[in-house]
Every structure is written in structure tokens, then in C-alpha cells.
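Example with several molecule types.
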Amino acid sequence: MLDARAMIARGRRRDAAFNILGWACAVVVLSALAALLTNLCIQGLSRIDWQFLTSFPSRRPQQAGILSAWVGSILVILVTACTAIPLGVAAGIYLEEYARKNWFTTIIEINIVNLAGVPSIIYGLMALGLFVYQFHFGQSILSGGLTLAFLILPIVIVATREAMRAIPKHIREAAYALGATRLEVVRHHLLPYSAGGIGTGVIIGISRAIGETAPLVTIGALTFIAFLPPSPIVVDPALQIQPFKWIMSPFTVLPIQMFNWVSRPGEEFLKNAAAAGVVLMVVTLGLNAAAIVVRHRIRRRIKW
Amino acid sequence: MLGLFTRAVLVVGAVAGIAGSALGQTKVVKVDGSSTVYPVTEAVAEEFQAATKGAVKVTVGIAGTGGGFKKFTRGETDVSNASRPIMKGEMEDAVKNGIEYIELPICFDALTVVINPKNTWAETMTVEELKKIWEPAAQGKITMWNQIRPEWPAEKINLFGAGADSGTFDYFTEAIVGKAKSSRGDFTASEDDNVLVKGVEGDKFALGYFGFAYYAAHAKKLKAVKIDWEKDTLGPVEPSAANVIAGKYNPLSRPLFIYVNKKSVETRPEVRQFVEFYIKNVKELSAEVKYVPLPDSAYELVKSRFDRMDVGTVFGGHPEVGLTIEDILKRETVSEAKSHGDDKK
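Resulting C-alpha cells for the full complex:
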């Protein structure tokens, strides 16, 4: 009797200790993040205004802005998303639903997981040889977007597979029992049900891609660029529609602009860098928030 | 759901389809290369675009002097920023690819050796003493100030220097140790000069080096060391614009260059326009971004070299330290690299 009581008490003590440990870990991690954010905001927040968002880089820190950088970031990410999502999701579906399990697919699976851990600069080197020189895409938004797409492909594939695997087997069996083809099962059931999980993976990937510098510098992203890529619709002098001309344009991105400012002399440039950092954070957090909303909505629609 | 994916796939397909059609008729002058020269070229590009009202666009990258030359000798860029003269291998690449270039000095970069303002003993140092501190053999051995001069304090020297990828590192090691990239490794290295400034600012026993521009921006927080070069008879020379221009602040001041692709100039008027604008305005703009401009007479020589389209380099493919600007502008340019034996005139 006494023994059991002692055991229970000991268990409770351990429980409480673990609880405190967990809390401590969370506090350390969160306060580090908070400190980082506050620091960025204190330095940079006052610098963010309309002028900052709509100006090109300049040697005068007060006149400098991040227009070409944020437009570049968004366009590069657009190319990345348009490439990595269809390719990654399709590959994930294939591996999970179609491919037979044999040594060959096992090797592919292991490699995909390993690829997620390859340093990003390696992707940059590959892209420099492949996209920039072999395919003659040049130092363009297309090259940059494709590079980042390759970088996040493993993340998207793994997320897709996890999401598919989480769908109960009886859903598939029920659909097959009613005579659905494999394509119909994927289209009408598996994809909609796994959209939330896939979306999460995609957003994690995109959030990573948007902060990448090394591979883009490797393929030759620029630092000073005081013009925007050609607009898809030109009104002046004559109405012209050139929907994809921007994709071959040279570019810069937010992290590169930040990196350049950090390494310049003068407090003012540091302020600019911090301000660009805040914008980058807002974009990333905004993307994450959007993903959470979308996932929540999709989840609500699904009723098994 | 699939509708969306199909659309995405179509977009990607279309994108790949138009990939061949490049930038079209927009006039772009492409510049890449040294991050040391970058602030100057950025300033010029900014003013140039304003002056041409955006008719000509300029892009500037920071691939580094070596990375810039790689692209330049492949014919991918029109202008290459360089913090050192073109080297032998790069000249050979240019010859192989049929790229002819014009070498134009544009301003000076001066390196500054800095100490903490509270440091009262090391206000003057000889190049030999700096070498004793920075050479590879010093690693782990030369750690105290009194190992350099016995009367200096018996305190640890805390060293701050440029990261191994930077032109500053190449230049400092070449000028002080005598061999580019030859340095001790046990010091705080950073590509970001702000880190170095902070390091020296907060440590009485620190010693560091970085660009004169960075020193000038933080002059209140730091003290510059006067450099005494045994190979001249000037005695200790303080890093200042006047001393740099006069060619006195040796061996730690150097000219910066742009290399211009001759064919680009001949075939595309906007490149010529940009380079002419560069030569005309670089004096004012380089001072504004805290570099040291060449003397007026030198800019006239630069302009006439460009007007004559003198291709090649005056350095013959080997780095040299301590040249005056007249030396650089009056020597004959060559395109073929000389062998190392006869590069002294």
C-alpha cells in the first residue's frame, strides 16, 4: 500500500519536473524568436513606409528601397510554386498510390528524403550548369524559380505522401468497390482529403525558398537592379500583351538585398536591412497564416 | 482541384515554351564582379539611369572579382568590376574566347589597420611587424602584444580580419605577408566589416583591418594605425585621402578597376554611353561612397585610354603592390600574359 503511494508520488514529481522542463524549453525557444523579432522591429520598423516599398536600391540609404527585391521575390516564388507543386504532388501520388514497392522505388524514396538535407548551395551549382548554361535560361527569374523549385521538391513530395498515407484505407476500398478507377479515386477522394496536409508541406517549402540566398547568388542573381521585369500588358505606345516576358528578366530578391545592406558601412544601411528583414518576415508569416486558414477550411468541408 | 493543377501545368508548359525568347529590345548594360567596387558602380548606375530616364538599364552583381572575370571572359557581361588587375589565367580565358577589354582604373581603395581608441602604444606599425602578426607562421605563436615590441603590454592580441572570400583578404595578405591568401587562420574573420568594426570597438587589445571606407564611416569609434613601409623612406604614413592620392600610403592603398568589353562598346552605343558617364562622374560619386578618387590628371588619362580603345592590361597578369597611378596609366597595355620572370617592366 505504502509502496504504491510512494510510487504514485514519485511519478507525480517526475511528471511535474518534466512539465517544468517542457515549459523551460518552450520559453527559451520562444523568447529567442521574440528577441529576434523585437530587435528587427526596433531597428527597422521606423524605416518601413511607402517610399521604402516603392523605391529602387540606392547609394543613399534614406532613398533606397526594396521595390525590385520584393517584386523579384514574389515572381521567383511564383515560378517555384507553379513548378514544385504540380511536380511534387504528382510524384508523391505516384510513389504512394501507383508505384509498386520494390528495391527501385525504395532507392528513390531514400534519395528523396536525403535530397531534403542537401545544402542549398549544391542546388545552386547544379542549376548554374543546367539551367543557366545548358538550357540557356540565363540569369533569369525562370532559372531562379526552377532552382528553388528543385530545392523544395523533396519537401513537397514527402508532405504529399504523408498526407495520402493518413487517409484511411477504407475510403479507397469503398471507392473501388463502387467501380471507381484509380484516377477517379485520386481525383475525387484522395486529393481533396489530403489537400490540407499537402498545403502545409507546400507552405513550409515556399517559406524556406523565400529566404534562400546562396543558390540564387550562385546562379547569378543581381544586387543592383533598378527596374522591374517587363509587365505582361503594355499599353504605351501600343497595346501589347507579353504574358511571359518577365520570366527571362534579371532579378534580385529580398534576402540578397538584405545581405548587401548588412555588409555596407553605416548605421543607415543596417536599418534598411532590418526593415527588409521585417518585410520578409511579414511575407513569410502571411503565407503561413494563409495556409492555416486554407487548411482549416478544407478540413471543415471533409466529413467521413 | 485537378482543374487547378492542369492550369498550373499549362502555365509551366507555356513558360518553358517562351523560354527561348530572351529580353528582346530592352537595352541592358550588364555589370558584375567585385563587391569592393560595387558601391561605386551602384552609384554610377543609379545616376546613369536617372540621366537616361530609364531608357538604358544597368544591372550590377557581386560575384566577386574572380567570379566577375569568369563571366566577363565568357562574354556574359559588358563591364567587370575588379579590385585587382586581371590575372594570367583570366587573360588566357579572354584570349581563348576572343574577348578584348579595356582596363580603366576608377578610384583608390585603401585598407586601414585599426586599433581601439584606448590603445596608445601601437599607433605606428611597420609592415614587417604586421607581417609578423599576420603571416601563417604566427598562428598560435604570436599571441601577445609584447612579442611584437618588448615595451608593448603583455596582453593577448585579439585579431579581426576579412573573410577568406573577400578581395580585402587577398589584398591585405598580398601587401603585408607578400603572398595572396597567405594568412594565419586563428583570427575572427568576417565578410561583414560591421562585425569587425564592432569587434575592435569593444576591445582595448584588438587589432583589425578593413577598407578605408569602413574606417571613415566609423572613425570616431576606432583609431587608424600609421603604416611605416621599409621599402620607402617616407616613415609612418597615416591612411588619408591625400596620402593615398599622392601614392604615399603604401602598400595598403590600391587602385580599383573596371574592365570594359571592347566589342560591347563598339556594337552597343548604350555601353559606350555608360562607360563615358562612368569616367565623367566617378570622381564625385566614388568620394560620396567613401572611396578615394584619382587625381584629375589621371581621369584625363583614363578617358584618353578609353577613347583610344587601348586593349589589354598594364600588369601582364601578375599582381603588383605599391604602384602610383601614373605608373598604371602610362605603361603600355598588353593582352598576352607575360611569364612571371619579366613582369617588372
